[in-house]
Amino acid sequence: MVIPTSQCHSMPQINCSSCRLNMLCLPISLELTDINKLDEIIQRGRPIQRGDHVYHAGDKFRSVYAVRSGAIKTVSNTQDGQEQITGFYLPGEIIGMDGLATNTHSNSAIALETSAVCEIPFGRLEELSAQLPNLQRRFFQLMSKEITNDQQLITLLSKNNADQRIASLLLSISARNHSRGLSAEEFYLPMSRSDIGNYLGLTIETVSRVLSRLHKQKIITLDKKHVLINDMTALRNLALTSDKP
Amino acid sequence: MVIPTSQCHSMPQINCSSCRLNMLCLPISLELTDINKLDEIIQRGRPIQRGDHVYHAGDKFRSVYAVRSGAIKTVSNTQDGQEQITGFYLPGEIIGMDGLATNTHSNSAIALETSAVCEIPFGRLEELSAQLPNLQRRFFQLMSKEITNDQQLITLLSKNNADQRIASLLLSISARNHSRGLSAEEFYLPMSRSDIGNYLGLTIETVSRVLSRLHKQKIITLDKKHVLINDMTALRNLALTSDKP
DNA sequence: CGGGTCATTGAGTCAGCTCAAGGCTCGTGG
DNA sequence: CCACGAGCCTTGAGCTGACTCAATGACCCG
What we know:
homodimer; alpha+beta; Jelly Rolls; Arc Repressor Mutant, subunit A; 2 domains; 7 helices; 11 strands; globular; disordered N terminus; DNA-binding
């Protein structure tokens, strides 16, 4: 019933070369000796609790962070005091790249559940990047991935209705879990309904109604935050703009 | 009446150190000798006409491009055949960074009017970046800026109504014109109503109605694509979420 | 002058919002 | 052990801002 979550936030002594996420994370395409060089600059902190900040909007930019376990949301504050969740980040994904442009974080990063992150001091990463072309390329790629992700969200918000938005989010989490070796069909949503609504530009009531409807239609089975995708094909079709066939 | 546009697309022989955009573009924070090194790798093409592509979605990623004159839109195609405009780019701004993640452009870049771009082969830029820390930093910053821009658009689409979206777009173009030494109050919109609607997640009718209303309220004076901002303060207030004061 | 593209304006519809009520769960304290 | 309050979620009912559909106008180019 309960899907066991990774225990690695209790093992701060782990290093990149033995981390089971290293095929997703920053070290991709690095040689072992280069991974070890990267390892030396990475600082592994103690677990952070639900609601704790990894960094605050306005903080001086010093580091980027790899999520090692748990789940993190990034939140940007608009000038008029609203909060917009700009992303949910799962193990192996990198946060903090928003801080480079102005040397100050424009977002806050907040743990959705007990989590652990690897801190990567950016100054050291820059130096190492200049020496290791593969690392430089890899980091450019990660930033580019961030851009294309954001653009997909823009499209979702601009063109898609509530059903499509929710279906797309479920499919995204499913696919990312799958790439980490977990089930694509069964998982826990680490965020609240309110977080989902904020992220997708919907009210909490609409999120709740859509999820209830998907459950009634037997496309998913939903119990609180536990999701079981019964009909992946139907969910994928729902995520597409169902105009002309 | 007619605001003269830059003529530099007819002067391909110009180089970075003499380009009047060099305080906005890639060369910021480079020494003169380093600018000259950058200059050597940049290829300046002939003018491109309205509707022409700088690159197509699916093209192999080879270069990024600095807009030298005119205006460019970037368009991403969703799997189900829809088009989403993800940005409008004015002189001094960089396009093409979407291609890094997968080595293939995920967007198309299309000229909104007669334009010129500087092509910057990415392989050469990477090599040079490894040698020039300031250039590496500058390029990271540009990508980070792209991310924060996209996140602002996400917030706009997620939280703001039609009036706020239109007002924000007008203010953004105004500010970017101003930073290029042009008028903040008076400018031409390089894109169609349909492009505006696509970008902002609105129908063309709504765009037209909102612009007409702003004109009737004397906040702007609108004649086709020519915009005169009469009351910058009112426009700024409109762009803010006008909930609790 | 005709045909095409782009923009404006009006009228009616509807998806998602607001407002409101109530349920479930968990922790705290009597 | 149960009562109670605080969060979080669900569900219903009615409203509204933006959409759809439709007609018309303005401009450009051959």
